[in-house]
Structures are given as C-alpha cells and as structure tokens.
Amino acid sequence: MPNPTVAIAHGTDPLPMVRExxxxxxxxxxxxxxxxxxxxxxxxxxxxxxxxxxxxxxxxEAVIDWLQTEVGAKDITIAESTWERSRTQxxxxxxxxxxxxxxxxxxxxxxxxxxxxxxxxxxxxxxKKVLLPRTVLDADCLxxxxxxxCHCMAxxxxxxxxxxxxxxxxxxxxxxxxxxxxxxxxxxxxAKLTVIDGLIGSERHExxxxxxxxxxxxxxxxxxxxxxxxxxxxxxxxxxxxxxxLCHEHGLGEHRPEHIKxxxxxxxxxxxxxxxxxxxx
Length: 281
Description:
By secondary structure, this protein is an alpha/beta fold. Helices cover about 30% and strands about 25% of the residues. Helix 1 packs across helix 2 and helix 6 crosses helix 8.
C-alpha cells in the first residue's frame, strides 16, 4: 500500500488552514455530497478552546464550510458527549455551537439524546461489547476533530482517543486496558478524516495542562498516521504511544514516521517541545 499522506497547515486563521490541509490530502476522495457526515469534536469539559482543552469552533465551522462549498454536503451533524448530559450541553453553549449550527444549517447532537446500540467487536483485544450511538454508527463519513493534547494515561489524546466520547453508558469503562480498548473502538468507528485543532494545544495533561500556542491544523485520511504526526508535532515518538502501535499492528493505519508522507508546512518548522505527562517522562 502507498504511504498515507498527512498535511500540516501553519498559521493563525483556521478557515484557509483547514482548506489547505483538506485539499492537500485529497479529502474529496472520501466524502460524497449525499453522505451522512458526523463531525466529532472534543468537548471533554466545558472549557474554552484557548485553554488548549477543547476544539475551537472556528475549526469546526471551517470544516463545515469546506464540506458545503467543495463537496456540496447537505447532511452534517456535530455530535459529542462528555461525562454527563448537562455538562455536554454546557460545553456546547460555552463555545457557541448552537448558534454555529443554526447559522450553517447543520445539526447539533448531544449523544446522550441518541439511541445507543450494543455492538459486539470481533477479535477484540479487550472491549468485546460496547454501547455506541446509532447516529454515529449509521454515518457514511465520520470526521474526528480532536485537540492537540497530551494525556495522563494514553500519552496523547488525538483522533482515536477522541472516539471515546461515543462510548456509553460509562466512559470510564475504557480506562481498564485503555490502549487495547482504544484499538478495539477504532476498529468499529473508522474515521474517514481526522482534522486536529493544533492552534493551541495542551502539554502535560488533557484537562489541567498548560496551553501551548502551536498554530497548526493537521489533517489526514489515515487516522493512525494523522495521530502519529500530531504526536510528532508535540515532540512525542509515535512508537512510544501504545494505542497507535496496536492500531498499526491490527491493520488500522500507519504509525511509523518513515512510512508517512508529510505535505504542507515542514515538521521542523512547527514542532514544539511539549512537556510530557508525568507517567511518560
């Protein structure tokens, strides 16, 4: 198989950055105008994007703009859930997602309000059964839109770790055998596109770390490769991220830097020395 392409756009205005990154990876090749499209951002807590914790709504709107103008997409849903229904709703309102959705003519779905379906995962490493939202399972195109962050348990939380927001009834069921269960989850929720908001990332921790101005958007069609590049931008070796290594070993994508084609801004230009989570120093 050819090496996957991952794009890095560098700047401060997410609209042209997102367009550049999606065009560089040939994103039109994986999404159709008739697709049911899910955008899955990261709103793990009701916190503003400048903390480095949550997805910047400007990045979400830039992806919507690209989908509507370049693809002609009509059926787009922003979907997310955090630890509680009410907390998810507060996060939506804090960053202005209800107004954004209305302005762009897209749906906004608190995944607590969706139907949840029990899914049996074939050849699971650890997560043999899980409840997942019907709307996400039925989507033709899942776009995972994480923040560029370190994580105290998973080392990084990027596109694959972001899928954990789809897990019900209790998200902490993922914490036992976390890396294996992330691999299992990625096998049943394959993202066609990953768009990482790296405008402001978070070092040391996923919710209580320090914000790092990084000024990048990272996009790819291979979810493992895109996360690997996100790790490298934070000066983290993807080989040391267990869930990325497991996903590669199980055929879900590429994590080896020498087998990833980087386009756009050079890695050397955008790489930052993020302080590591305490368990990974």
